[in-house]
Structures are given as C-alpha cells and as structure tokens.
Amino acid sequence: MLNRYPLWKYLLILVILAAGLVYSLPNLYPEDPAVQISSASGDATVDEGELERIQSALRDAGITIKAVERDESSVLIRLDDADEQLQARDRIAAMLGDDFVVALNLAESTPAWLQALSASPMTLGLDLRGGVHFLLEVDMDAAVTQRLEVNASAMREQLRSERIRYRGTEIEGRTLTLTFTTEEDRDAARRLISREFRDFDYQNVGDGRGAALAMTLTDQAVNEIQDYAVNQNLTTLRNRVDELGVAEPMVQRQGPDRIVVELPGVQDTVAAKRVVGATANLEFRLEARPDTPDNETERLGFRNDESRTAELMRDVIITGDSVSSASRSFDENGRPQVNINLDGTGGTLMNRATRTNIGRNMAVIFIEHKTRDSVEVVDGEEMIVREPYTERGIISLATIQSALGNSFRITGLDSPTEAAELALLLRSGSLAAPIYFVQERTIGPSLGAENIKRGVMSVQIGLLLVVLFMLIRYKVFGIIANVALALNLTLLMAAMSLLGATLTLPGIAGIVLTLGMAVDANVLIFERIREELRGGLSIQQAIHAGYERAFTSIVDANITTLLVAVILFSIGTGPVKGFAVTLSLGIITSLFTALLVTRAMVNLVYGGKPVKKLWI
Q1: Contacts for 536 with CB less than 8 Å, ≥ 6 apart
Q2: Which of 10, 212, 580, 591 has a beta carbon 3.0–4.6 Å from 568's, enabling a disulfide?
C-alpha cells in the first residue's frame, strides 16, 4: 500500500526522537555561576567556622547563595547571579588571605536522573563559556644551555672511559669549555669528542696546565635546538592540558618562540598556571664518594629541610624524560608517593647504575625553573625585567638495596596534591626549555553569557523566518516541515551533547545555516509533489513519487556539503572546527528528519486514506 510504513519503522523513528529529546534536555539546565575555594599549598582546608563566616559575609553583602558543596580539597559556593561572582570572589579572598585560592567557576546543574543516563549539556567554547588565555614565551638561551649540560655530561663519561684526565667543564653562552692538565690530554680528547659531537666548532685555547678545548655550537645547531625546544614544549603542553580534562583546548605556536594556550571553562588561573607553566623535572644522581674530585660533585639541599644537604655526583643517571608513566599512591605509613615506570632506555641505564652501586645512596632531585620580575627605569620609562633562575632540591635520598629496573617509587613528598601534580608532570613529559608567562587573561562568564544571548537570538530569528515561510508557502505540509525542523534542532543538540562536541560562536553560525538547509530538502520534496499533481497523478501517487524522485537530489546535495565540512574539520583549527562540527551533524540530522520523520508524519495524516484535496 502506498504511503504506509511498517510498524517497526514507526517505532524506530519514535525511539530515536525520544532519545534525542532526553539527551538534549540537559541543555535546558545552564551551569550555575560559582566561587571555588581551594588550598594554595594543597594541605589547608576551610573549616566549618570559616565557611559559616563566609556565608554570613556574602548574605550581608546582598549576595544570594544557591547552594554550598564541599569535598576533600575544595569548597564550591553556587550563586544565583553571574554578576555577583566577582564581588563574592573578592570578598572571600580578602577574608581568607594567601593560604587559599578563590576562583570563579561554572558548576554543572544537570538533574541527577539525567546524569544517571550519562546525559550532559553541550560543552561551550572559550568564546561562550569563558576561561583562561595564556601567552607563553620559551627561554631559547636556557634551551641551548640545557643541551650543552647534557653534552658535557656525555663527554665527561667518554673521557673517563678512555682514561683521559680533565680538570673541569665550563658553559658560557653557546660555548662549552673543557680544561686539561696537559696539551696531550687535550689533543686526545679533541680527537675522541669530535668524532661523536659534530655540531661544534672546535678551538684549542692555552697551553701547558692551562690547556683547554673550547667547543662552540654552530648556528645551524642552535637553530635546530631552539626549534626542537618550541615543538617539544608544544607537545608537552598539549599532554598536560589533556591531563587536565579541558574540553576543546587550544595550544598552538605563535611566532618563533611563543605559544598560545586557551582553556575553556577554566576559571582558576592559579591552578592552571601551576600545571601548564610548571617547568619541573627530575634527575636521578648517585651520592658522591668521599674520594670523588671536587669538580665532579655538587652540594644540594633538601626541598623540605634547607638545613640538610648532600654531596652528589654531577653526572645524571636519568631524567624525568625517561619516565613512561607515573601515578600517585600512598606507602604503608599513609605518606604520599609517586610510582614510576621507565621506558626501555631509562630502565637499562637505571639498572646499570644501581647494579654496581648496591649499598650506595641515590638522590632524586626536583628541578624547577622560575623567574624574578623587577621594575627598572630605562630612558624615563618603567620596564619589567625578567631574571630567570633555577631551584634544585633533593626530595629523596635512599640507599640502593638491590638493582632497580623499570619500576620503582619516589617518596619524601609533602602532600597528596604535590604527589598528584608531580605524577601529572611526569606523565605528560618535561619541558625541553623553561617557559614564562608573557600575558594571562581571564575571560569571564559574563562575556560568554552575552555571546550566548546573541547567538540564541540569531537562531530564534532564523527559525521564525523559516517557519513563517513554510507555513505561508506549503500550509499543512509547512506545519509538518516545521515540526520536523524543531525535531532536527533537538536531535542536533542531543548529538553534540552525546559526542562531547564543543559549541562555539562559529558553531552557532553552523546551526543557523543548518536550519536554512534543513527545509531545503522539504522544499524539493514538496515542489516535486506539486509537479506530480500537475502531471495528473493521484494524490497518493504524487506523495509517493515526490519523496522517491527527490531522494537522489537531496542525498547528492547534502553529501557534497558534508564532504566540505569534513575537510574543514580535518585541516581547520579552533573556530573553523566548531563550525564544521555543527554543520556536519546538522546535515546528518536534517537528512533523517526530512526523509524519514516528515514522511512518517505525512503517512500518518494521508497514507491509506481517501484524500480529495491536498493542502500544499
């Protein structure tokens, strides 16, 4: 029979529409503006008395508190009005002082029954939700210095293995200088080293006991080191951002030595800076023997007890770069620790060093690159001068009981938070060179709310115009098309929520375009039905022929548009991807609603019934 679907097809369409409705519902529950209180050091907590004083102070200031939630490490105060966020944060920060970080936040408000179905709202991009924007600069001089330090350590090991005596090493700028007691030792060292290290220009300096070998990196080598430092830092930062669980972040290079990081939805800039900008790394070194020459040792203090020091070998067994995975846990006494797994090369080096040094102490050194900013007056203008410096501290000094392999643990950490952050940094990789914050900007939720308001208005205006056109032009069939259009928008929102796609301003533009294209298929079908009616077919035959003969044209037109959207997504970045995602999903949902949903409604209204006149 013409224009009739089997029961299973009606049921399938109904199930899909019902699922779309359920998974689009969380978008009706916007996130609550909130203020989050967390410890600045990881070990302080807000007690009940302080929390009561905070609530009283906010009420006295006329700030309405919607709810208060707390967990092990933080307190979340939900507010009714986003305009009161800044006022609430400033008032709380003034009360608590420097021991706590008070940050803006956006707290999810999806009902529990929807969360039980794994239903969540669409993720909003930086331009809608707010977040943080960082501009970072890579310290190129430090990148060169770090490479020279690694080369110096390898050269010293080579010289010792060949029993060539040397007095010391010195690094200045891009030049590494080795000093010797005789010219013969210097010449032998030059022959040995120059075969392995080809990125240097070699020059003999001095004679006799002042004989030295100056090795200067070539321009090409310096450029390669600096380019590697930026690209490696890009990879590391992307890994760190992924560990933070931020949706749709942006990490990209800007110019020769700068990196832009944007984190949508992150309002706690202090926590974000602590993880993103951390230049921490680890070194594993043996404790020096009493008879070790002074030029091969270095005295370092402990991080948690500056009065304690230890004499360590300068040569490094491995660094944090050899760590393949790391996780936080607790030892048998409840103290925080980090479980370490090394890659193949790191495991081999660790086993070789510990196998021959059982009973000797090995230190784990925490290295962090920092800067001091000072204001200087130059030509009558104040300028911020950045002075980089490096902090090294021992976090663990333990006796080697047996040969270590690929797995072991680090103890001596101050708090679970420090252990968690150290594990995160080790998992994501260390930075190839220090990075410094040139610019930081917090994009507040008020800007996002204004963007959302304008975007929703554009969708409403576009939807209204399309609805009016379809009603005037196609009458009853126009009503069917408009119902399908509303269902199409519902399915699109559900699909984006399920897939975790991020909605941006360009994405809203894609939705507006989808609404226009969604009725395109209906226009083709309805015009085809009109044409078939003019050609003398019966009403039932005209409806059937309209859908059947317009099918190919509709699919061809939408497939080509879908291919363009896929290409945009694959080669585009940020905003372009946001547009491509909504356009792609919109095309798929439009095909479903135009070809199946409207056909099902037409079948239910006209199918198998005697129809004298078709209102189209």
Answers
A1: none
A2: 580
